[in-house]
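Data card: per-record layout.
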Amino acid sequence: DDDGATTTTTTDERSPLLQEAKLAERQAKREEQGVDNFEVQWLEIRRAQITQAGFLRNYRRLLRRVVFLNLSENFLTRLPSEKRAWSHLRKSLMQLDLSSNRLRELPDEMAILHGLSSLDVSNNELLHLPPLLFSKMRSLQRLLLHHNRLQLLPKSVCHCRRLVLLDCSFNQMERLPTNSFSRWSSTLEVLVVNNNRIKELPAALPRRLRRVDASNNRLKRIEFSGTSRKPPKLELLILTNNNIEKIPNLLGQCDKTLHTLELLPNPLRSPPRAVVVDGRDATLHWMRKQLRAGVAGGGGGGSLRSSSSGVGGSGGSGGGSASTSRATSRTTKKRGDGGGGG
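The structure for this 342-residue chain is written out next.
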């Protein structure tokens, strides 16, 4: 450090006063030496019991090149709301982890962090997000919002045109920002929205979508826009514990990529529950047969052979889905990256 080289600062110390003291010491050393390039690029202060992040405001020059900032697993209840607490981070900061704190809101001023590629505010007490929070975050690729109390996403999320992973599971959301999905058509790969109150998914699902967990919601249907449009090349689709009666037979085209398919319990009529309980292979085979017969399904077109329907029973997803239970566990655990993807 004597030559003024860029440093990496990581600590698991439990005293918040110690964190402030270390930052103050580094700031003083920089001022004594008059070294302009003495800067922190990696800062991790986790499990330190800090309740506020005033150092973001007090040590602006020291932190102006921070790329990674981890303040997870603390007791943060609020963040600085002054613009000067965030302005020095607007270009350099790429990864921000505020997970597992006690935050109930995020400051509007965070909207200037347009260099962010990853934002994790999961496991907090967030009731809402600032309307313009994502208006300048055009580089954002990973957005983790799970385990909060959010009822909706702000419309500004549509500006995150590079989004690859969205996890807003375990919230109180009733709908998704439908218009945003068209903006993510060529980027979004992982969508985790389980354990909400969502009634429908967007019809135009992004074509690069690989993994979807929408279990434990209030879905009544799932669609692919237009019967001639090919569905995304899904690898994992979990729709358990909803109110779905029909699954589009176009899903049968995913037989080469879809390794995990969970549809029960649902009040299914198409495909028949008697087919679904036989597992993934039997379900996709039935769908392909319907497609060859000219029945698209899901959108109400064509006639389907009658069969008994039912909601109850775990039924499961049999053959061809050996990783099903592990996949479900990954997407519903308290701490995670959302569906194991990204």
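Known properties of this structure: The first strand starts at residue 7 and ends at 11. The two ends are 35 Å apart (CA to CA).

See the next section for split statistics.
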